[in-house]
Write a structure and sequence with these properties.
The structure holds two protein chains of two kinds.
Chain A: H1 3-8, H2 12-29, E1 34-37, E2 44-55, H3 85-101, E3 123-135, E4 140-149, H4 157-164, H5 168-174, E5 180-184, E6 191-195, H6 200-213, H7 220-228, H8 239-242
Chain B: H1 2-10, E1 23-26, H2 28-42, E2 49-56, E3 66-69, E4 84-94, H3 97-102, H4 105-121, H5 124-127, E5 135-142, E6 147-157, E7 164-165, E8 170-171, H6 172-175, H7 178-194, E9 202-207, E10 212-216, H8 220-223, E11 231-235, H9 247-259, E12 265-271, E13 274-276, E14 279-281, E15 286-291, E16 304-307, E17 318-321, H10 323-326, H11 328-346, H12 353-357, E18 360-364, H13 368-379, E19 384-389, H14 416-427, E20 432-437, H15 451-470, E21 473-476, H16 485-494, E22 497-503, E23 507-512, H17 594-613, E24 642-646, E25 651-653, H18 668-677, H19 679-687, H20 691-697, H21 699-705
The chains are: A alpha+beta, B alpha/beta.
The complex binds zinc ion.
The site of zinc ion (ZN) has 9 residues of chain B, from loops.
Family (chain A): Belongs to the ATG10 family.
Biased composition (Basic and acidic residues) (chain A): 63-75
Region (Disordered) (chain A): 63-114
Chain lengths: 256, 720
Amino acid sequence: MMHEMSMCGLDEKNFYCCCQLLLQQSEQLRDGWSWEAVQGSEEGYLKKTALRSVVIDSSSVWDHEGCGSDSEPHTSCHSQPDQPDEEEEQAAAVASGDTDSIKGDIDDEDEDDGVCAVSEGSSQMLQYEYHILLSCSYSTPVLYFRAFTLEGRSLSLEEVWSSVHPNFRLRLQNSPLNTITLQEHPLLGQPFFMLHPCRTEEFMRPVLQAAQDQHRPVNYVLSWLSVVGPVVGLDVPLQYSTQLHPAPPPSSGKPD
Amino acid sequence: MASETSEAVSSTPDLKLQFAPFSSALEAGFWHQLTQKKLNDYRLDESPKCIKGYYYNGDPLGLPTRLTLEFSAFEVDGPTPARCCPATGTLYNTNTLDAFKTTDKKALLEKEAKEIWDAIHSEAALKDPSILCKFILLTFADLKKYHFYYWFCFPALCFPEGIKLVQQPSALEQVFSAKQIAALQEAYDGMCIKRETTAVPYFLMKYTDDTVQMVPLEDWDMFFTDTKKVTVGVYDPCTLSQHPGWPLRNLLVLLAYRWGSKLDTVEVLCFRDRTLQGSRSIQHSVIFQIKLPALPLNSACPKSVGWEKNPKGAMGPRMVNLSECMDPKRLAESSVDLNLKLMRWRLVPSLDLDKVVSTKCLLLGAGTLGCNVARTLMGWGVRRITFVDNAKISFSNPVRQPLYEFEDCLGGGKSKALAAVERLTKIFPGVNAEGYNMSIPMPGHPVNFSEATLSQAQRDIEQLEKLISEHDVVFLLMDTRESRWLPTVIAASKRKLVVNAALGFDTFVVMRHGLKTPAVSPSVPAGADSSTSCSSASSSSSTPAGSVPAVQGSSLFSNIPGHKLGCYFCNDVVAPGDSTRDRTLDQQCTVSRPGLAMIAGALAVEMMVSILQHSEGGYAVASSSDDRMNEPPTSLGLVPHQIRGFLSRFDNVLPASLAFDKCTACSPIVLDHYEREGFNFLSNVFNSSHSFLEDLTGLTLLHQETQAAEIWDMSDDESI
Ligand SMILES: [Zn+2]
C-alpha cells in the first residue's frame, strides 16, 4: 500500500475499526449509533435516527433565495406534462374523501375518557435517518441521509433544508461538501440523499496530517463526521473528543 | 404546549388518570419493505401477518409518544434498537381499497383485546408482559399510484368507571433523594444486564432510603410478601409530566385482575431515561399513586379502545402518497432537477433554470445533429422536445446517431422521428417528446406533380407552421441546405428564435438567426399610444418593448443587435435549390468527422441556453471573439451570433454578420410575399428554379454587378 493512501485513505478494515470505536463511544454517550449488518453479507453501515419538531413553512421559497431575478414560483421544474395538476388534485381529493368516509364502526371511541388531549400545534415531527457507509472507490466514509414525516413520506431536499436550517444553503455553499445528490442506497436500494465523497480526502488530509504530526490518535470516521454532520443537521457531541478512549492503531504504522 | 394544557385539565379536583395515546411513526423504509413483501411474498394473501414495532422512553420533552415501525418491522425475530421496547403487532394488508374500507375494525380490535385478556387470565402476560403492548395495522397499498392507506390500533382494555389518582403525580426528583435516584438507575441497569437486554417494559420495585430492588413482573408473589405498599415500574415512552403513556394501561388491568382484591392503591413509576449531550438523567420519571379500580370477578373481556385518530383529530385512517419517493419516474425527475439546481447553487447562482427547462424545442432533423441536440437538451432538463424527420433508420446510423440501435434498422428501419421519441422516453420518462414523420418541402423540388402531391405539400406546410407556432426555439438540424429554407422563412415571420447547426467535413457552423422586431400594427404609431401599451420595463424575450437599442456609429460587425443579425441564407448570393454550386456545409453527415456532430450539437444547445439567460433573449447584441476578455453579458458568458469551428485546428471563432436585405429567406420582400400569399408563394418557390427567388430579391441583379464571393469559404465540395 502506498504511503499516501495509508495516510489519507480508509480501507475496509480501518473503516470497521473506526466504526467499532465510534460505536463504543456512542454507547457510553448514548448517542444512538448502531451497526446495521446487511443480511447474508459482511457489509454493514452505521445508522442513527433522530426526531425533531420543526415548524413547517409550507410556502418555503428556499429554492429561490438569493436569486434576485427569480420571481416566478418554482413550478415548472416539477411540472408534470403527462399528469396535469388538476388530475393530481382530483386524485388527492378522492383519496382524502376516501379516508374520511372510512370511519366505519368505531364511533364509540369518543367515549374513551382515559385519553389525554394532545395538541398537535403548528409544529411537525420529522424523523431523520443518517447512515455512514464506506465508499470503496474513494476510500472515504460517505454520509447518506433522508428525512421523513411520521407517515413515512420522504422529504425533498428543499423541504429538508428549509426545516433544518434557514441558512442551510449558505452553510452548504461555504462548506467543502457542497455536492448532494439523490442516490439509491447501495445496500438498501432505496432513495437517499448523499454527500458526495469527491472532496472528502481534500478536507480530511490536513486533519490527518496534523494528528500524525502531533502523534495524536485520530478516528477518521469520527473526525470526518464532526465536519460533515452539522451540515445536514446531525450534531456530534463534543464529548466524543473529550472522552477518554482507546485510539485506533495508527494506520501508517501497519506492517503492510 | 401540549403538556401545559393537559396539566390544566388534570388539576381539576377529580384527578382522573388519563393516558397519552401512541402516535404511529413509520420510517420511510417501512413502506419500501411493505411494497417488497406485497410484490414478492404476500401477493394476494390477505391473512394476518406478524410484525414488530418499538417504543422509546428517552425522548426530549415535547415529542409525541411514538410507536415506530421501520423496514425491519417484518423480521419479528430481529433485534430491537438498543434501549427500546419491542411491541408485536398484526398486519392486515388488504388487496383492495374496498376491503380496507369494509374490514370490520371493531371485530379486529375485539379479537386482539380478547387475546390480551386471555393472556391476563392465564399466566402468559406475567411471564411475557410485552403481550400487554400490542398493535394492529390495517393497510392497503395502491402500488400503481404509490398511495398507502393505513390505520393503527393500540388495543387497550378499559375500566368501566375510569381510574382515579390518589394525589397529583410527582416527578421522581421530588420524591426520591439523589442517592435513591442513583440506586434506582443502578438497579434498573443491573436488571437489564441480568436479563441480557437493554430495556425492560414492566418491573416491580422496593426501596428504602438508600437501596432500590428491582425484579421482573413474574416474581410478584416472591417479591411482595405483604401488600401494604406495592410499587410497579413501567418503561414509559410518554414525555408529559402529568400523564403516563399507553403501555401502563393494560398493566393496570392485569394488576387489578390478579391483585385487585388485595390492593387498594398502587404506586407506579413511569420510568423515563434520557441522555442529552452525553449526560443521562432519570429524575424526570413520574410517580403516580393510583387507586386500583375493582374488576368484577369472572367478568367477560372489558370494553376496549385503541384505533388511532387521523391528523385531523377524527377517527379514521390515514393515507400517504409516496409517489415522489417511490415512483421511479418521479425519482428520475427529481434527481435530474436536483443536479441542475446544484449547478445553480454551486456555480451560477443567477442561472434562471426555469426558463431553460420550460423552453419548448422543435428539432427539425433527427439525424446525427438531432440526436446530439436532443441529448444535450435533456441534460439541461428541457422537457418538451419535438422531432420532425422523414427518414428511416439505416444500418450506418446507430454508430453516429446516439438515439438509435441496430435493431431499429431491421425490417426497413423505423422512422427516425418516432424512434427518437421512443428512445428519449426510455432515457427519461419525464420528457414530453413528440415525433412527426414528415417531409419539409424545399425550393427547387417541385410539389406540383399531381393534385395529391400538391395537397400533401400544403398539409406539410400547415403542420410545420403549427409546430413552429407551438414551440419557443426551432433547431435547424437537417442535412440539406434547401430544407432549411422553409422553416427559416416561417420562423422569421413568426419571430421565433432559430438555432441552426450545419456540418462540413471538419468544420461546422452553429448560429442563431436574427430575430426580427415584432411586426408593428400600422394603426398604432410606435410609442405614441400610452393607454394600451404595457409598462416600459418589460424584459421578457418574447415581448421586447418594441424598441431595440439602436446601434449608432458601430463598426459593421461589432455590436450588432439581435434583430439586425443575419440568417443562414444571408451570406449567400445564390438561392437555395442550386445543388451544384453551394455545398460547403450540409453535406451528408456521414462524411464529417464523427466527433463533429457531438460538438456542434452540444454547442447549439449551449448557445440556446446562453441566449435564454440574456435579458433580451434573441434580441441580445451579438458577442464576438473580441468580447472574450470583456464582462460577459449573461451569467453563462457570451451570446454570439455564430460559432464557426475548425476541427483541424481545434479552434472556434465567433463571427457576427448583418442581415442581408436581398436574403432569399429573411429579407422583407420574401417575408412579405410569404405573409400575403402563403402557399401560393411557397409553391412557386418549390416549383421554380432558383432564379425565382434571386429575381424576387434582386440577387440576379447583384450577380451581374459583382463577382460572387463567399465570406466564409470553409470547405469545398470534395468528392465523396
Ligand atoms: Zn437571411
